[in-house]
Amino acid sequence: MSNNYAIILAAGKGTRMKSNLYKVLHLVCGKPMIQHVVDQVTALNFDQVITVVGHGADVVKETLGDQVSYKVQAEQLGTGHAVQQAEDLLFDKEGTTLVICGDTPLIRTETIDALLQFHEQEHAKATILTTHTEQPTGYGRIIRHDAGHVERIVEEKDANAQEKAVQEINTGTYCFDNKALFAALASVNNHNTQGEYYLPDVIEILQKQGEIVAAYQTLDFDETLGVNDRIALSKAEAIMKKRVNQAHMKNGVTLIDPEQTYISAGTVIGQDTVIYPGTMLTGEVTIGEACTIGPNTEIKDSVIGNETVVRQSVIFDSEVGNSVNIGPFAHIRPSSVLGDNTKIGNFVEVKKAKFGAGSKASHLSYIGDADIGSNVNLGCGSITVNYDGTNKHVTKVGDNAFVGCNANLIAPVTIGEGGYVAAGSTITDDIPNDSLSIARARQVNKDGYMARNK
Ligand code: UD1
Ligand code: CA
After folding, report:
1. Does the C-beta of 42 come closer than 6 Å to ligand 1?
2. Distance between CA atoms of residues 437 and 416, nearest Å
């Protein structure tokens, strides 16, 4: 593709969202709306993609980085005015310019591509992506001549009753002959209910000049949903969720109940993994093959190997190896690394701890700021006493060590390789390799004591 440019409009505040977060940064399946649009647009190799930013410009730029270039619209005077901000970058270019809104997260590359092709085929100066809906409220309506040609677009707030009844809407995505676009924008005024410079007014201007204005109607209204408020946001979420879940199922992942499974757009899942209901995978999650995840499990920004089982548990910002067994009711907190064949069982909390291959904490433990070697057994109730009220300290446990039940390991402390901690010990000093350590008061039995005191 050559001589194709794209402008993404994202300067609006999104007043109807009633939010401190800028509209285009609201998440749909865990990914900012604007990122969805950028991903679909950049898949088409445009010569240049320009995002017009205004409200929250810095945060939007930080989110998108250098995937696109930017123009700032300091004052939001309307969509036409927003497009004009890109004029100094594009005014002298021959070619086609796509304009798309940052608040239509469901739009797909295939549809944008079809629109571009239709535009070319019709030799049009402008082609609008339209769709049909029985609930057109809020959208600009497509007003056609008796002969069927597009005449203009009228905004909801400027429409009369007859125009409001029109069910063909402007999706907010268009293709223009680049030079014709900027020439026409120069004569757009703000004489309308909202006092804004409307981009759709370019259509009427070009049409009156006798230019060809075309409309490409997509059958999928869902894809063109514009998110202006939280109700539309929840609709977008539901549609995207279905799309994401179906893609995983097509790739060989079993979702026992897709309705009750929430998978972020940034998640990768291997074949033959089975996901039980109530599972939420958020942020960037990678799960290997043949894993069992859930029910009722939350995993965020983590990597899980193959054949690992995670039941009723929470994992944040961590790395989990192959054939690991987690849960039920385990909490793996950030910066934990669990090696292959490890086991983190019932009511075990792990934080910033590394477990070497084959190590286990099967029941009722807190293991934080720890470096656990391989084939270590941390008995029921093992606790790393990592915090002295001011600072955190590290516990090190060597390979093949055994920690008996209900032991306190008071950090900083090191248990040597093959070391053995007797149950109930409170360990304050380092233990040499292959040594047994007992740190508890000796038991005293008082013969006949109970009988005497009856
Ligand atoms: C717009 C269209 C409407 C169409 C609908 C599709 C206009 C006047 N109306 O209405 O015909 O049916 O989209 O969803 O274009 N923006 C800027 N700068 C501005 C104003 C808006 O960058 O000064 C951006 C917004 O951030 C948003 C996009 O443009 O991403 C659309 O603006 P919005 O206010 O949501 O327009 P709608 O009322 O939805
Ligand atoms: Ca909108």
Report:
1. no
2. 11
